[in-house]
């Protein structure tokens, strides 16, 4: 074992000494070996990816605030802001008009998806030179499992450094990298020292790494969960760790059990490479147990609309729909159905889920329902039908609804059945 | 109930009606076979409430009566009974049936026959009769095209329609459609139609024996009964309106070709091995006197098949789900088939050569 630094409470003080210069790795921690027994996961996150690609290709933009998203007169939102633009308080998802107000001198550019996709492919190629286990999360982010690569390419940190260096040398872009024993920690690590950072989490010091972080950093904790945790005076991971598993499960259902594990740095999710392993799913734990079929069907509709939307955003179609039902006593059943044809339509997925629900006993109250989609494919081949249920019309309607949501936000248009009483 | 019979008497009956006994069910009584001794016959009944099978066999009835025995255990026992005279007796005051084959006996705990669902007798008002060979053939060439997916129940059935004193069977899962006509023996003037679960038709076909020459269909508003030999099968009908199938069958085409059934079927099978998993897409290219079949799986490899054809009209190409092709090629019995195509987005039609009474329509896959 080489000397070990640890990353702990006085994180910021520790980081403060490291200048972040372009094209220069800011190595926070040097450790030759992160333990034989653990997996070795690298999370690579490109810095201000879209904006950085534009700045690279148009050198006159270097050093200037660049906002990718579209014209400031449009009603769209910021896709990516360069670090120079971020100094003006511009961030992703901010309305472009607001970004313009904050920095009228910024360069506003449209989103050139094809270009970013091509660059993303080049980055992916660098990754697969080190391991076949690459799970892209989006165009600018990926997990790599290099557990089996260390004999060939050296330790995980040295692979991480090499990848960073190659992205810089070959593509003239910077990435922030996290190295840890699982996906959760690796992703947290890559985020700590952006841009152009590298953070290595020592498996022996995981708790010291995690404890001081705020609960918002924990995977699965959104605004609502964070608010409830704050209400319980839970602010940091250390506070979260003081709660017992039963308590957390009682408060947050399956998310609670997940938080219990994550607070201890435990995350067994594998790095899933390739399309076959990929699935899209969502589940909801109810505020109160439900036993009425109608109410459950409404929740299935909500889930179906949500997973189908994500499916379409990924430009995928699914062949298999699976339904998960958890009863009040945590007994869990899942049922799956493979459809005759690929689909990305809310209605098809909802229909399949309702059919599956009919195969499941509702004698006991249900605390959670989930829909997941498997056998995903990016094929666009369409089996034509007789006596069609007007699938072309449904596709057109779906596209129109998506366009409204893209422009005005997810809540802008919904099915009447999904309106909640407070919306009335 | 007390009877004398042979192992074969029991075996035949049990094997027939067992096909209707559901393998899993919410209602325990349905896991049983109803036995009824009457008029020197033993009547067997099994049902899953969707379909019921009845059959009977001559036995010596000493005392009339009925009993219900678990289908699984009873059939397993019957299969292993010795070839000797068998006495079956319902022990008075119990539900237990004693099955004696000297000097041994097995007693099976039964269920209450009163609980067994009563399957209503059907009026013999509307009946049609046809040769079992014709019936079996019609089912074989159509039922496979019905949908398995219960989403749209109508498509899990086969349309049975009488028109011009002919019986028609039509089945479709919306991606392909099979249409077959057959001659009926009885004259039948009324136009009539019903949607029968494909499963029931396949079951009836399977139960028909060599020696059963004709089959009678008894029709009512919500049930249909098939009677052949000593066996009857009653099935519920599927409610709803079958779509207008005539409207989707094109009356003309731009490309017409004639190909050997076996050569085509074998080429399709080979090409389907290399078709992309899940979608099973194979592409057909019709050129002058030759058809090229190709498939391509990014993981496995690719396939190129070339077969001789006789063709008229435009050269064209079209992509199909190979399963829809191989399904029909398995049930066509002529040596050659005719294929009619109109571009790559219109349905293709397959007919046996010189057989007017069968048509199979298959929708293409739109590829990019």
Notes on the protein architecture:
The complex is a heterodimer of chains A (424) and B (368). By secondary structure, chain A is an alpha+beta fold. Chain A has 3 domains: 36-201, Reverse transcriptase/Diguanylate cyclase domain (Alpha-Beta Plaits, 2-Layer Sandwich); 206-262, 5' to 3' exonuclease, C-terminal subdomain (DNA polymerase, domain 1, Orthogonal Bundle), CATH 1.10.150.20; 279-418, Dna Ligase, domain 1, CATH 3.30.1490.100. Chain A has 16 helices and 14 strands. Chain A has a 6-stranded mixed sheet with strand order 1-9-8-2-7-6. In chain A, strands 10-13-11-12 form a 4-stranded antiparallel sheet, covered by helices on one side. In chain A, strand 8, helix 8 and strand 9 (197-200) form a beta-alpha-beta unit. In chain A, helix 12 (245-252) crosses helix 13 (254-262) and helix 14 (293-313) runs antiparallel to helix 15. Chain A is globular and about 60 Å long. Chain B is α+β, with helices and mostly antiparallel strands. Chain B is elongated and about 80 Å long. The mean pLDDT of chain B is 92. Chain A binds chain B through residues 319, 339-342, 351-352, 355, 375, 377, 379-388, and chain B through 147, 149-151, 172-175, 177, 243, 248, 276, 278-279, 281, 319, 321, 345, 347, 361, 363-368.
List the helices and strands and how they pair.
The complex is a heterodimer of chains A (424) and B (368).
Chain A: H1 11-16, E1 26-27, E2 41-46, H2 49-57, E3 66-68, E4 80-81, H3 83-86, H4 96-102, E5 107-109, H5 113-128, E6 134-138, E7 141-145, H6 150-153, H7 156-171, E8 175-180, H8 183-192, E9 197-200, H9 206-210, H10 223-231, H11 237-241, H12 245-252, H13 254-262, E10 280-290, H14 293-313, E11 317-327, E12 332-343, H15 346-358, E13 366-377, E14 382-383, H16 391-408
Parallel strand pairs in A: 1-9, 3-5, 8-9
Antiparallel strand pairs in A: 2-7, 2-8, 3-4, 6-7, 10-13, 11-12, 11-13
Helix pairs in contact in A: 5-7, 12-13, 14-15
Chain B: E1 2-5, H1 7-18, E2 32-38, E3 41-47, E4 51-58, E5 60-63, E6 65-70, H2 71-80, E7 86-90, E8 96-101, E9 104-109, E10 126-131, H3 132-142, E11 157-163, E12 166-172, E13 176-183, E14 192-197, H4 198-207, E15 214-219, E16 223-228, E17 231-236, H5 245-248, E18 255-260, H6 261-273, E19 281-287, E20 290-297, E21 301-308, E22 310-313, E23 316-321, H7 322-331, E24 336-341, E25 348-352, E26 358-362, E27 365-366
Antiparallel strand pairs in B: 1-5, 1-7, 2-3, 2-6, 3-4, 4-17, 7-8, 8-9, 10-15, 11-12, 11-14, 12-13, 13-26, 15-16, 16-17, 18-22, 18-24, 19-20, 19-23, 20-21, 24-25, 25-26
Helix pairs in contact in B: 1-2, 3-4, 6-7
């Amino acid at each position: 074992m080489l000397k070990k630094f640890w990353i702990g409470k006085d994180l910021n003080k520790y980081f403060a000494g490291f200048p972040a210069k372009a094209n220069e790795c800011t190595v926070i921690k040097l450790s030759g070996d992160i333990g034989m027994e653990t997996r070795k996961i690298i999370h690579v996150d490109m810095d201000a990816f879209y904006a950085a690609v534009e700045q690279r290709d148009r050198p006159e933009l270097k050093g200037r605030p660049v906002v990718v998203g579209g014209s400031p007169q449009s009603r769209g939102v910021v896709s990516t802001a360069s670090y120079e633009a971020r100094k003006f308080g511009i961030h992703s998802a901010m309305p472009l008009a607001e970004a313009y107000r904050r920095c009228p001198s910024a360069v506003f550019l449209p989103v050139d998806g094809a270009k970013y996709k091509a660059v993303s492919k080049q980055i992916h190629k660098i990754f697969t030179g080190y391991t076949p286990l690459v799970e892209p999360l989006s165009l600018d982010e990926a997990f790599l499992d290099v557990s089996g690569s260390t004999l060939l390419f050296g330790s995980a940190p040295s692979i991480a450094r090499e990848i960073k260096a190659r992205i810089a040398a070959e593509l003239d872009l910077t990435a922030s990298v996290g190295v840890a024993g699982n996906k959760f920690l690796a992703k947290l690590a890559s985020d700590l020292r952006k841009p152009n950072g590298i953070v290595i989490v020592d498996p022996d010091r995981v708790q010291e790494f995690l404890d001081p972080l705020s609960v918002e950093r924990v995977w699965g904790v959104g605004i609502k969960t964070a608010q409830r945790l704050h209400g319980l005076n839970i602010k940091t991971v250390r506070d979260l760790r003081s709660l017992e598993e039963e308590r957390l499960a009682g408060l947050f259902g399956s998310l609670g059990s997940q938080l219990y594990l994550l607070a201890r740095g435990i995350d067994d999710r594998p790095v899933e490479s390739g399309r076959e392993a990929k699935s899209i799913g969502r589940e909801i734990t109810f505020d109160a147990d439900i036993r009425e079929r109608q109410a459950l069907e409404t929740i299935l509709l909500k889930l179906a609309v949500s997973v189908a939307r994500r499916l379409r955003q990924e430009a995928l179609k699914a062949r298999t729909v699976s339904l998960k039902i958890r009863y009040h006593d945590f007994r869990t059943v899942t049922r799956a159905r493979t459809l005759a044809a690929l689909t990305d339509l809310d209605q098809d997925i909802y229909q399949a889920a309702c059919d599956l629900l009919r195969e499941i006993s509702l004698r006991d109250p249900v605390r959670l329902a989930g829909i997941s989609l498997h056998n995903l494919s990016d094929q666009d081949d369409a089996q034509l039908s007789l006596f069609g249920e007007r699938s072309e019309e449904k596709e057109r309607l779906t596209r129109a609804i998506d366009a409204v949501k893209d422009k005005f936000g997810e809540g802008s248009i919904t099915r009447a059945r999904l309106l909640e009483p407070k919306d009335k | 109930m007390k009877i004398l019979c042979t192992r074969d008497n029991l075996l035949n009956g049990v094997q027939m009606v067992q096909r209707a006994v559901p393998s899993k069910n919410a209602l325990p009584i349905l896991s049983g076979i109803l036995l009824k001794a009457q008029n020197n016959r033993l009547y067997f009944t099994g049902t899953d409430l969707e379909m019921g099978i009845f059959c009977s066999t001559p036995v010596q009835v000493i005392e009339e009566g009925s009993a219900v025995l678990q289908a699984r255990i009873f059939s397993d026992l019957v299969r292993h009974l010795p070839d000797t005279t068998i006495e079956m007796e319902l022990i008075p005051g119990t539900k237990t049936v004693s099955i004696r084959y000297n000097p041994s006996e097995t007693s099976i705990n039964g269920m209450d026959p009163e609980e067994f669902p009563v399957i209503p007798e059907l009026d013999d008002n509307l009946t049609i009769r046809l040769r079992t060979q014709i019936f079996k053939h019609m089912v074989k060439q159509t039922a496979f095209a019905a949908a398995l997916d219960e989403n749209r129940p109508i498509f899990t059935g086969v349309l049975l329609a009488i028109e011009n004193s002919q019986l028609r069977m039509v089945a479709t899962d919306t991606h392909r459609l099979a249409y077959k006509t057959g001659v009926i023996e009885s004259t039948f003037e009324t136009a009539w139609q019903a949607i029968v679960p494909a499963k029931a038709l396949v079951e009836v076909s399977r139960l028909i024996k060599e020696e059963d020459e004709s089959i009678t269909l008894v029709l009512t508003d919500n049930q249909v009964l098939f009677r052949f030999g000593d066996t009857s099968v009653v099935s519920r009908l599927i409610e709803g309106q079958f779509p207008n199938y005539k409207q989707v069958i094109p009356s003309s085409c731009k490309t017409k070709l004639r190909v050997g059934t076996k050569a085509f079927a074998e080429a399709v099978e080979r090409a389907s091995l290399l078709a992309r998993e899940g979608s099973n897409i194979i592409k057909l290219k019709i050129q002058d006197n030759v058809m090229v079949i190709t498939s391509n799986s990014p993981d496995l490899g690719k396939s190129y098949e070339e077969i001789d054809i006789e063709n008229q009209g435009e050269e064209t190409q079209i992509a199909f789900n190979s399963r829809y092709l191989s399904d029909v090629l398995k049930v066509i019995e002529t040596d050659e088939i005719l294929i009619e195509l109109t571009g790559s987005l219109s349905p293709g039609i397959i007919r046996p050569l010189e057989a007017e009474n069968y048509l199979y329509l298959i929708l293409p896959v739109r590829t990019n």
